[in-house]
Design brief:
173 residues, mainly beta, seven-stranded antiparallel sheet, three-stranded antiparallel sheet, 3 helices, globular
Length: 173
C-alpha cells in the first residue's frame, strides 16, 4: 500500500471506491408539479446514506451543491430514502445522472406518510422530515428525522464497489 497526498482527485476517487456502499434513491414530492418536471416527483441516486442516531432516529445523506435537484429536497422539508435491492440497477442508473428524466411519475410509486414517493420493490424505506443541513465542502449534508420505516428481510442489497455494481445475498434472519 502506497501513501498518497491528495493532489490527484481521480486517484483519490479510486481510493474512496475501495469502500463498498449500498445504493439508495432519495425521493421527494411537491404538489402541482412544482419540482420542474411532470407530477412534481424527484429522485436522486446516492451512496452517501448513513444512520446517525437511534434516539432520536436520524439519518444523513449528501448532495452535490450544484446538482439540479438539491433545492427540491431543501424546500420540501421531507424525503424518502429508498434502499435499492440487488435487481434495481436500472433505478440507480436512472436517477444517477443530472441529465434526462429524474422524476418518479412512471414508476408506480405510492406517496408515503410524509408525502414523498416510495418506490416499488425496494429493500427498505426511511420516510423522513428535514431536520437540518450542514456544510460539507462541495456537498450539502442533509440530516433527516425518520418518521416511518419498512424493510424486506428477504431481499439482498445493490452495492457499489470500485466503480461497478455488485450484489450480496440476503442472510437468513
Amino acid at each position: 500500500m502506497k501513501s498518497q497526498t491528495i493532489d490527484d482527485s481521480r486517484d483519490y476517487r479510486r481510493a474512496l471506491g475501495s469502500f463498498a456502499t449500498g445504493i439508495s434513491v432519495v425521493t421527494t414530492h411537491q404538489k402541482h408539479g412544482t419540482a420542474g418536471n411532470g407530477d412534481g416527483s424527484v429522485g436522486v441516486t446516492v451512496n452517501s446514506f448513513s444512520s446517525v442516531s437511534l434516539d432520536p432516529p436520524l439519518i444523513v445523506f449528501s448532495l452535490d451543491r450544484v446538482g439540479r435537484r438539491l433545492a427540491n429536497f431543501i424546500d420540501n422539508g421531507h424525503f424518502c430514502v429508498n434502499v435499492l435491492a440487488a435487481d434495481q440497477v436500472n433505478l440507480s442508473d436512472r436517477f444517477a445522472s443530472n441529465e434526462g428524466d429524474f422524476t418518479c411519475e412512471d414508476l408506480g410509486y405510492t406517496l408515503g406518510e410524509t408525502g414523498s414517493p416510495v418506490l416499488p420493490g425496494v429493500m427498505a424505506i426511511f420516510e423522513c422530515t428535514l431536520e437540518t443541513t450542514y456544510d460539507g465542502g462541495d456537498h450539502l449534508m442533509i440530516l433527516g428525522r425518520v418518521q416511518r420505516y419498512a424493510y424486506d428481510p428477504d431481499k439482498g442489497p445493490l452495492l457499489y464497489f470500485r466503480g461497478g455494481y455488485n450484489e450480496l445475498a440476503a442472510p437468513s434472519l
